[in-house]
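Dissemination and training. As part of the outreach component of the grant, students in the summer workshop were shown how a complex can be specified as a set of sequence lines and then modelled as a single object. The example used during the hands-on session is reproduced here so that future cohorts can follow it. Participants entered these lines:
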Amino acid sequence: QVQLVQSGAEVRKPGASVKVSCKASGYTFTGYYMHWVRQAPGQGLEWMAWINPESGGTNYAQKFRGRVTMTRDTSISTAYMELSSLTSDDTAVYYCARRRLYCDTAICSDAFDIWGHGTMVTVSS
Amino acid sequence: DIQMTQSPSSLSASVGDTVTITCQASQDITNSLNWYQHKPGEAPKLLIYDASNLETGVPSRFSGSGSGTDFTFTISSLQPEDIATYYCQQYDNLFTFGPGTKVDIK
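and obtained this result:
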């Protein structure tokens, strides 16, 4: 079945970096963009970025530009999110989510239809 | 940036009640709006896409309506398994989630 399996929980010190993986199965990895979304404790969902697995093209939320890097390895159907210069504010559950994009002439339908189970990243000294 | 607001921030209702959540965008987003359900410890789940289309496999008690800046999400007969936080999300210009509405059983 279609699923996204993420890497396990991580603990980092302030100033460090973290790299989270998201392995896709059950569909053609290069056929769908991948989003990354996070949820800090007690907070709502926050979109971070997407990557086009076919081309490697990316688009980042303004808040994360310069600090987040999205990459992928098509040979193993895996997307990666690396966040650097971590602070305690980056403590959150990080989710990958498949982008289902369909366009008919000028009208597009765009949704996050399959989600990973989340990866807890804790930043603490 | 497009900002999304939701109301109420939380609600408590009885099993079988009709529950309504509203979502407002800071500018016209036509029907570029989705609704998600998020239960603690689970992955979020897409319920409604393009403001009013029910995702495959989602029970018909869930529905959505609206266009432009004002949208509504309804659970027609609340069930115990519907306890969750519900988020609207716009995709007209990048992606923004609303702050969420926590739904509880009275």
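The longest strand of chain B covers residues 19-25. Students were then asked to discuss how this feature might be tested experimentally.
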